[in-house]
């Protein structure tokens, strides 16, 4: 009789995605791991509204809309929407009224909450995929990845009216019920997973090497040797040697503890007052699972690993960060806010503070929402630095982007060139076949032929920093008519990330004024982007042939001249 092959234990991961996109994120991760024949088990850690709560939200929203119609005569539901239960309402949650956005996708209601951690859905997935594969998953919601230590699941550890002493006692009681041996075992299992990520991912990261070679980078104390671009192999060898020394069992590991808390103002004590107690409770004293001494020391600046506590819906989830924020000059969890998305290629040091950049993981999810196919032609008319086109090339399609800011004397051209080059190098080193290009154009006069594009995916200006609300309202109808000209009839789609779905619907109505160019939206999905409410609107091109309105080209040419003059010499753009 043949011996049975032992089943490999699954590694436990934690990631966060904007609420509203959790279904797409979970399916995207599951599909990506399944393609590699890896096992995957997934679940949502934090609570989402039940079906009954969603129905209550819909009823309240309908009552709000009826009152609005009563105040304003002739104010009917938007004719192009076809769905009355889309908008912003309030719901009772944890004894308080919370703002909630509701939309739909393929006939199913989707809700989203604004806020920092409040607007995130926490997802746990267990898999036997190696760390290098997990770290390369691009649709990872907000880009954060942690090795999970423990989760209180349905048990509420913290209460809003508790004092700091009561909160600490409740946490200690929870860990006592769990048992110290079980907790220590899970801690060292997560630490082992962190060590494998350091060995297989961090030590081979080109982003870390490039940041430490940068003249503006503040060299960390462990790097005494100089970094030389001409000695690429030696510099990477020094990096691998450093991480190998960290993982040496005889070395002392330095750590810091951080905490993110949803609705943090509802508590009686400050988050910073809770962190020292978390460190005392969550960090084991010395013993490791192999019996060797493993001492830990606090170092808030030059730490090796970061233990993160997430307090959401009064529940606690603890994990070890698997992202190398401290090695690329990025903010970690210590600020109490979500850290940036450092999905490679990472270009944080090159972007001006006046430029708003979409997270690469969110751009990747936009492609997943659109159900992109290999070889499709994708256009982003408002591409900024080119995040969406670059993600399109990762999807093995032909992605073209452009922006008016690239025409300016002090525009984004140098940043775009560096980003494109980094993306090409990343694709070449990882065997990714795709194509993307960036052009300088005005979005209302695209240099593309008719009936040519499969998908238009774009992060539109929100009307806050990049363009005023009035200018945006005048710009969108012209943009959509130009998009209708370029899209393939009947099969072409637009997937638009915007700050106001109502403004987009109004612009679509104007674009349809002469002939019906677009059908009713198939999706209006509420999402949380950077802590603020946003919407993903998906519409499909009709089979009506595009026809120009009278004096259309003259009107567009006048708009182009005016926009070119008003944006001359500015770096401001939205990516």
What key attributes describe this structure?
disordered C terminus; ten-stranded mixed β-sheet; 14 helices; eight-stranded mixed β-sheet; about 575 residues; alpha/beta; about 20% strand
> What is the approximate shape?
globular
Number of helices: 14
Structural class: alpha/beta
Number of strands: 18
Distance between the termini: 61 Å
Task: Explain what the structure shows.
- The chain has 575 residues and is an alpha/beta fold.
- Helix 10 (387-394) links the parallel strand 12 and strand 13 (398-403).
- It has helices at residues 22-35, 51-71, 131-135, 164-178, 180-200, 206-213, 232-246, 271-282, 360-370, 387-394, 413-430, 469-486, 501-511, 552-566; strands spanning 11-18, 40-44, 87-93, 96-105, 108-112, 120-127, 145-151, 253-261, 296-298, 305-312, 315-321, 377-380, 398-403, 435-440, 455-459, 493-498, 523-529, 532-540.
- Mean pLDDT is 82; it is low at 1-7, 221-233 and 568-575.
- The protein has 14 helices and 18 strands.
- Helices cover 33% and strands 21% of the residues.
- The strands form two sheets. Strands 3, 4, 5, 12, 13, 14, 15, 16, 17 and 18 form a ten-stranded mixed beta sheet that branches.
């Amino acid at each position: 009789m043949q011996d049975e092959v032992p089943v490999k234990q699954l590694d436990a991961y934690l990631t966060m995605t904007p609420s509203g996109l959790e279904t797409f994120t979970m399916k995207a991760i599951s599909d990506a791991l399944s393609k590699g024949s890896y096992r995957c088990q997934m679940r949502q850690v934090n609570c989402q509204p039940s079906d009954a709560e969603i129905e209550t939200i819909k009823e309240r929203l309908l009552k709000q809309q009826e009152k609005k119609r009563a105040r304003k005569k002739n104010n009917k539901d938007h004719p192009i929407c076809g769905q009355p239960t889309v908008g912003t309402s309030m719901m009772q949650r944890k004894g308080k009224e919370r703002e909630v956005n509701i939309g739909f996708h393929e006939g199913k209601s989707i809700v989203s909450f604004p806020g920092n951690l409040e607007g995130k859905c926490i997802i746990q997935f267990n898999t036997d995929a190696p760390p290098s594969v997990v770290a390369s998953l691009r649709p990872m919601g907000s880009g954060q990845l942690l090795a999970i230590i423990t989760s209180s699941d349905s048990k509420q550890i913290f209460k809003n009216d508790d004092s700091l002493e009561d909160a600490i006692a409740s946490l200690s009681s929870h860990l006592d019920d769990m048992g110290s041996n079980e907790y220590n075992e899970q801690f060292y299992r997560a630490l082992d997973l962190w060590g494998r990520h350091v060995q297989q991912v961090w030590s081979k990261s080109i982003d870390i090497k490039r940041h430490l070679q940068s003249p503006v980078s503040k060299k960390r104390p462990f790097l005494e040797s100089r970094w030389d671009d001409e000695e690429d192999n030696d510099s990477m060898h020094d990096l691998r040697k450093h991480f190998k020394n960290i993982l040496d069992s005889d070395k002392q590991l330095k750590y810091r503890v951080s905490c993110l808390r949803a609705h943090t103002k509802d508590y009686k004590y400050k988050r910073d007052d809770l962190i020292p107690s978390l460190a005392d409770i969550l960090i084991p004293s010395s013993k490791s699972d192999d019996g060797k001494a493993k001492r830990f020391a606090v170092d808030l600046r030059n730490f090796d690993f970061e233990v993160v506590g997430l307090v959401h819906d009064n529940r606690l989830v603890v994990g070890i960060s698997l992202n190398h924020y401290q090695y690329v000059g990025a903010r970690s969890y210590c600020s109490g806010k979500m850290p940036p998305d450092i999905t490679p290629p990472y270009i944080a040091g090159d972007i001006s503070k006046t430029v708003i950049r979409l997270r690469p993981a969110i751009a990747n999810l936009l492609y997943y929402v659109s159900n992109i196919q290999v070889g499709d032609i994708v256009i982003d008319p408002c591409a900024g630095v080119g995040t969406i086109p670059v993600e399109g090339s990762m999807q093995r399609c032909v992605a073209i982007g452009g922006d008016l800011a690239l025409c300016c004397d002090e525009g984004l051209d140098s940043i775009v060139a560096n980003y494109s080059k980094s993306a090409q190098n990343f694709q070449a080193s990882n065997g990714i076949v795709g194509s993307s290009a960036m052009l300088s154009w005005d979005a209302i006069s695209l240099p593309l032929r008719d009936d040519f594009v499969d998908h238009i995916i774009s992060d539109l200006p929100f009307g806050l920093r990049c363009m005023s609300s009035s200018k945006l309202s005048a710009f969108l109808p012209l943009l959509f008519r130009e998009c209708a000209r370029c899209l393939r009839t009947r099969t072409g789609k637009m997937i638009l990330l915007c700050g106001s779905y109502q403004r987009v619907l109004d612009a679509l109505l104007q674009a349809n004024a002469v002939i019906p160019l677009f059908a009713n939206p198939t999706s209006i999905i509420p999402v949380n982007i950077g802590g603020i409410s946003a919407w993903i609107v998906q519409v499909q091109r009709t089979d009506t042939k595009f026809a120009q309105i009278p004096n259309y080209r003259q009107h567009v040419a006048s708009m182009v001249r005016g926009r070119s003059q008003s944006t001359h010499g500015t770096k401001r753009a939205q990516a």
